[in-house]
Structures are given as structure tokens and as C-alpha cells.
Amino acid sequence: MTEAILLVGGKGTRLRPMTVNTPKPMVPAAGVPFLTHQLARARAAGVEHIVLATSYLAEVFEPYFGDGSSLGLHIEYVTEREPLGTGGAIRNVASRLRSGPDEPVLIFNGDILTGLDIRALVDTHETSGADVSLHLTRVEDPRAFGLVPTDATGRVTAFLEKPQTPEEIVTDQINAGAYVFRRSVIDTIPAGRPVSVERETFPGLLAAGAHLQGMVDSTYWLDLGTPQAFVRGSADLVMGRAPSPAVPGRRGDRLVLDGASVAEDAKLTGGTVIGAGATVGEGARVDGSAVLDGAVVEAGAVVTDSLIGQGARVGARTVLHGAVIGDGAHVGADNELRDGVRVWCGARLPDGAVRFSSDQ
């Protein structure tokens, strides 16, 4: 197994305002762009060649990762001019693949944090003789996901999109966003138009009699599509709950990057990350949060389960709980923002303007 496709073209709408200036895979998680963790785990599993399928803010990726040599990889970049969906994006990069028709190609969604045993998925694919193999995971409430029931041998029997009634929920297995394709199958995806692998490619292959194999791996799995999930994923990486060889420091309650300034009596807990050049003032408490590069948390502020953008400022004694502060935003002193409140990039909130706010 030597090559993979990473789908990193999404706009990250649910993660705004953090994705206004930065594509979702490049938002820092545990001190480095989230994509770094995926690339490092792929390399650790033996992948050598990766094609990034880019679209939104595509110009950001190559200046950061270059040819991939610093990670022991060879990375190529293919940009969609118009959004093509998951299947269309896979087909759009097919010309860059080097595998023979029957060889396996790994495919990852660019917003999934997972402890998947990548080698085991490839082994399952090869020993079963499948055309496509899917990583499946089990969730308590599958209504927001696509269900993937399998038979006793693990062979996929159906694809059921977002069931709602008890009768429709026939399994707790969902599509976890990592696949192995037989190389020749990729060439059967229609070119030059939007295609969804979940709604078109996989059901079509199943209807045509193709062999789709599921492998249930219920280790750590998290869709990082929302700010709350992204912050939790970053904290889990710092604390070692989610595996990655790319975390730039020791696992523990906190990760403070080079150039950050943290007051001696400030308290950092719960997998908090303080980015390069960021400042945390006297008596501040930051729990389970990510404070990105150059941001400032002033004295006495309390920040919990929140995401503070690059160059943003949180005023003295301000309380944030489950909030998102965009890049360059300024929240004045003595404010209280809770329960999913988002402050847009560059916005300014005066001192004491909000004592409590909620999106409920």
C-alpha cells in the first residue's frame, strides 16, 4: 500500500468563522494544521504518495506542505475548478495515481479524526477480494449519518442515508469516511460532474453486483465539522485520547507552543493549546480550549471549550464557554459568551456589552 487520496476541498461552512481565512483541514488542532495529523498517520501506515484533492482556498496547502518530503511523503495537488462532490473529487485526481488496475488506493475525508488501524483496513480489502472496502464505526445515535448494514462476513448489503424512524435504523454501523478502492473502480466514476460516493457511487456499485466490504473499527472517531467537535478533537490529541505522531510536544493537560507567554498563575487544563506568540494573562483559566497563534487572553478571563482565532483578543475577566472567536476579533473586558456564540473575524465587542448569550 503506497498511495492515497485526501479529500480536502470542502468549504467548512459549519466551522465558520474559523474557515473564513483558512480551509478546514488547515485549522490548527493540537498545535499543527489538522491535515498534518492525517498525513503523519498515513505515512506511519506505509503510505508514500498522497494526492490532495483541493478546492476551497486551494492556494494555502502547497506553500505549507510543499512536496511532502519533510513528512517522508511525496504530495501532489489537484484543484477542482467547480465543486465536484466526494466521488467527483476522487475521479478528478485519478490521472495522478500510480497504482495498477487491481492495486488498492486509500481514500480519506479531510475532516475525520480517527484511530483507525489503516493497515487492517487494507488487509481486509485484500483478503476479502473486495472492489471497495469501507471503514465503519458504531455510534449511539445514527440518525445524522448514513447506515451501512453488513452480513455475517462483513459484506455490505445496503446504504441507508440518514434514517429517522426506529424501523429504518437497522444497524448502528455508519460510514466513517475512510475507504480502500480497487484502482480500476475509480475510473468508473463519471468525470467532469459532481458525484457523491455516498449517494451515487456506492449504491450504484452495490446494485451492479460489486463486492463492497465493511470493516468495523470502533476505536476513536470524531467528525470535526463543528467548532465544538473541533475543539474536543484538538484537546483529545493533546491528552493522547486520539492518536497522532504529529503532536508537537508531550501528551498531557496542556500544550504551549514556542513563543507563547503564559502567566505563572494562569491555569491551563483539559488539553488546552496555546499557540505560538499567544499570551495568557495573570489569573486566567483556560480549559479544553484552543488559543491560536498570536491571540491574547487577558488577566482573569475564563475560557472553556472554546476556540480563539489567530490574533484575536479576549478581554480581562471575560467568560467564554463553548464560544468561537474569529481571527483578529476583539472581545472587550467583562463580557460573557456561552453556548455556541460566534464572533466574526475582525469584529469588536465593547467592554461589558454581553453578559449572557445563547444560540438556543
TrEMBL record:
Domain of life: Bacteria
CDD domains per record: NTP_transferase (cd04181)
InterPro entries reported in the protein's UniProt record: GMPPB_C, Mannose-1P_guanyltransferase, NTP_transferase_dom, Nucleotide-diphossugar_trans
Residue ranges constituting the Mannose-1-phosphate guanyltransferase C-terminal domain according to the UniProt record: 254-333
Family: Belongs to the transferase hexapeptide repeat family.
Name listed for the protein in its UniProt record: GDP-mannose pyrophosphorylase
Domain Nucleotidyl transferase: 4-236
